[in-house]
Amino acid sequence: MPAEYIQRLKESDNLFIQSIVDRLGVCCMKRGRRFKIRYLLLLLFLLYFSYTIVFQQIKSYKLSIQEAELEEQIKIAIEERDRLKREIELLHTDDYIEKIARDELGLVKSGEFIYKRQVNSKN
Fold it and tell me: How far apart are alpha carbons 1 and 15 in whole angstroms?
């Protein structure tokens, strides 16, 4: 029984494939249909080509915007780096160290006096 079933399946598949080949043969044999298929293929190719070009242009535009944003971020980072380098150089100078010691820590040199002004607040 399984052998007969397999044989019937093969015959039905062969008939189906043959009917498709016959239809394609008739379609391609007719001169008018052949030109229509060529035009259809040409149209499909042009649509694909146009689609590809348009989306490549969109992608290129988005990438150029992203590039400009990244260049701006790089510029800001370089400016910040330069500012920090200047601050580091300033930290190693005696004048800056003295200024910090006087202003923030309230230190004085020997022989100097600190004068603090008292502010009177009237209500």
Answer: 21
Alpha-carbon span 37 to 41, nearest angstrom: 6
Alpha-carbon separation of residue 109 from 93, 99, 114, 116 (angstroms): 17, 12, 10, 16
Using alpha carbons, select from 105, 104, 100 the residue that is nearest to residue 90: 100
Residue type, 78: I
DSSP conformational letter for 115: -
- Which tens digits make up the pLDDT trace of 24-41? 554 444 555 556 888 888
Cα 3 to Cα 7, 8, 20, 67: the distances in Å are 6, 9, 26, 67
| Domain ranges within the chain, ordered by starting residue | 16-103
Single-letter amino acid, residue 77: A
Helix (H) or strand (E) holding 44: helix 31-91
